What we know:
Blueprint: E1 4-13, E2 16-26, E3 31-35, H1 42-49, E4 57-62, E5 65-66, H2 73-81, E6 83-86, H3 98-110, H4 114-127, H5 143-155, E7 161-165, H6 173-188, E8 192-196, H7 200-206, E9 209-214, E10 217-222, H8 224-228
Parallel strand pairs: 3-8, 3-9, 6-7, 7-8
Antiparallel strand pairs: 1-2, 1-4, 4-5, 9-10
Helix pairs in contact: 3-4, 3-5, 4-5, 5-6
Amino acid sequence: APMITFSNVQKRYGAVPALIDINAEVARGEVVVVCGPSGSGKSTLIRTVNRLEEIQAGSIQFDGQEVHGSLRGKQLNRLRSRIGFVFQSFNLFPHLSALDNVMLSPIKINGASREAARATAMRLLDRVGLSNKIQSFPAQLSGGQQQRVAIARALAMEPPAMLFDEPTSALDPEMVGEVLAVMRSLASEGMTMMCVTHEMGFARDVADRVWFMDAGRILEAATPDEFFRNP
Ligand code: ADP
Ligand code: ADP
């Protein structure tokens, strides 16, 4: 079964249609890059997957579970914690060190011991190249470093898939590469990923499929070769 399945998804903000008739799948291990003009529904689409946005009709299955069904409270939080989400803004807890930011969810949500959570967090911060910054607070880190902490924090819940919503758009240009490098390495290890990004080099080199959205619809779902082929 696919990791993510959108079936007849419809979403409006008041009278404004944001998603129209979305039918699409993300296979296990697949990297999908979602692109398209501003306002075409990319961010809305990705935010429906962990129910940061509600939908009016249709269904979304994540790893075999209906996201927009009757899940509430703890169950919904538990599902959300299994869907790694990286935002444009880094969304770290400002009063917690990098290490504590990464340790928090495994302790709170999974009931992990402090030692186990700490070991996992150290391993993940090392993996994103920040083993020398574990005691730093977000304000002491560059944007690229903060975003790498945010990725490590998402990975701490061992999610079967990761969603990225313009993860490099708020970064100074010199920091974009360090974040894309982490995303590339995740992709090469088989992580299922859905990425909203304007980084077309990443789309060309890393995506298995590119979804092109316009006015709330997915107009094209193609391989990068097909998508970037000159007409
Ligand atoms: P993209 O990510 O491609 O820029 P969005 O998903 O942010 O597109 O927006 C899709 C459409 O929904 C746009 O017309 C946008 O103005 C509208 N929209 C997005 N968020 C809201 C909101 N919170 N309230 C009302 N309209 C919204
Ligand atoms: P890199 O590109 O390797 O992240 P930078 O030259 O951006 O390195 O940053 C060097 C150091 O300066 C970082 O380790 C970080 O601690 C600090 N730093 C950089 N940018 C900021 C920022 N915007 N706010 C706070 N500290 C920063």
